[in-house]
Amino acid sequence: MARTIWLLFLLIGYSNASSQWVLTDLNKLNVQCIAKTPSSWLAGTAKGIFRSTNSGVHWEPTGLKTGYITSIISQGPYIFAVDGSEGIFCSTNEGSSWELACPLFEMRYLAAMDSTLFASSESRGIFFSINHGKSWTPLECPDPEVQTLLVKGDTLFAAGQRVFFTTDTGKIWTQTEEGFNGSYISQLITRNTTIFALTNDQGIFVTTDHGHHWSSTADPGFKITAITTTSKCLFAGIAGGVLLSSDDGSSWAGGPALPNNKIITVVAICDTNILAVTFSNYPSEDTNVGIWRLPLSQMPSFNAAVRGTDKGFVCEEASPNPFDKATTIHYSIERPGPVYITIANLLGQTIQTTITTETEIGEHAATISADNLPNGIYLLSLKAEGAVKSQKIIVSR
Smallest Cα–Cα separation from 116: which of 102, 134, 128, 104? Predict the structure, then answer.
């Protein structure tokens, strides 16, 4: 009975605010991926790549107008995109123009670790490149059926029916002890020390010990088809809406419903907006297919999660890093007040300081420009609520 009431609550919560989701101008087209670059957001589609410079509100075509793009990643001044039938494409000008870096066929997913680029296939295993995608070398992997990749620090994770990880570019692999009930893993994401794995029919699994042991999260009563995370909340796409968890999947809350019951294949947090991608077998004939946008502020469960947690001042890692034009750091605060952002060199000399005097409670994003920063390593510090969070950033052109 309690489970029925909980599901009913979610559905009622959806129906109260269906008009809040807005279909963007990237519609009547299936979108496979959304990725952040130094100064914009890119969407990979069945007809090339589109770009947004205003948090997903408006999208326009880039220089790559053909191909079936399944993965996009930024690596310093380079942006790479996968077209399974053509190969790996590369852009050095935020997508205005692209060139075929290498005709590496049947690849599906990309990941980057410092200057090394990884590409995976569902049948050919993993390849890596150390020369910006111009040439690729097969990487020894215990399972050639790799569905997705994740880089966390110096560790590369590869997932199919199990998760494998390596810290030495594939010389030695460690296999997780548990399986995932025979399900394939379609997505791996990370937040701080936690890794989430989305399976195709068994929900979400979570690990907090670097992938050695996994446990399943709570079943929300709906099939989860896409996940993403912020510094505090886990988001899950289902048919017709997006769920939110502020306790790593132990419990779920509903949000506004989409005005249709389409399957959501991609969920992304684009600055202050949630982006949800709906799918159709006949997208050109379907007016409900494409990228939908909802301001985070219009998701009551998100606001409650931000107010209800007490984790203090939290910062994520700047991304991309290294960078050549700009990098973005996401942070959240529990109390309103000033936030000081300082960049110093390795001698401790302050180069620039930004002060946001009236920062509200919740999650925020700050963009750091490289315009006045020569190539090198810098210390980026954020100060709020009496605490200081610091990390190294690298400018590399």
Answer: 128
Helix (H) or strand (E) run with residue 6 in it: helix 2-15
Contact status, residue 252 vs residue 284, Cβ threshold 8 Å: no
pLDDT of residue 19: 45
C-alpha span between 264 and 294 (Å, rounded): 14
**What are the sequence ranges of the domains in the chain?**
2-308, 314-395
List the CATH code of the domain at 314-395. 2.60.40.3080
* Cα distance between residue 177 and residue 346, in whole Å: 42
Q: Tokens at residue 55, please?
A: 């948090």
What is the residue whose two structure tokens read 């009496």?
386
> By the 8 A CB rule, do 98 and 63 touch?
yes
Distance, CA of 354 to CA of 348 (rounded, Å): 17
CA-to-CA separations, 76 to 39, 80, 150, 231, in angstroms, rounded: 12, 11, 18, 23
The DSSP bridge partners found for residue 241 are: 238
Q: What is the mean pLDDT of each run of 10 residues along the chain (397 residues)?
A: 37 46 95 93 96 94 93 93 92 94 90 92 90 92 88 92 90 81 89 91 90 86 91 89 88 83 92 92 92 86 54 79 89 81 82 75 84 89 80 89
Q: What CATH number is given for 2-308 in this structure? A: 2.130.10.10
Tokens 């068994």 map to which residue?
202
